[in-house]
Amino acid sequence: MQLRLIAPWLILLGACSSGSTPPVPEPQVMPDFLLADVNPTSQTFGNDVSPRDSLGMITAWYFASGT
Q1: Is the distance from CB of 29 to CB of 52 less than 8 angstroms?
Q2: Which of 19, 23, 28, 48 is most buried (most C-beta within 10 Å)?
Q3: Could you tell me which residues come within 8 angstroms of residue 51 by beta carbon, excluding any fewer than 6 positions away?
Q4: Count of domains in the chain?
């Protein structure tokens, strides 16, 4: 019974330790743009925001459209 529980983990560990590490991609420069901040709970509400406002920080940008 215990062998049946351990065997899948051993297979997964073997698959994960292939010995080769994938190359790390070079950082890419984000194109500059300005967007109006329309989030009423944001500190920058009503102002234009840019990726340059967050240099050195990790950010996520979400673009949505509706019909």
Answers
A1: no
A2: 48
A3: 30, 31, 32, 33, 59, 61
A4: 1
Residue 1 lies in a domain: no
In a domain? residue 11: no
Q: How far is CA 29 from the centre of its chain?
A: 15
Task: Indicate whether 38 belongs to any domain.
Answer: yes
Domain that holds residue 35: 29-53
List the pLDDT tens digit at each of the 67 positions of the chain: 455 556 565 565 555 555 677 888 888 776 788 989 998 999 999 999 998 888 889 888 787 888 7
Report how far residue 16's alpha carbon sits from residue 13's, in angstroms, rounded to the nearest whole number: 5
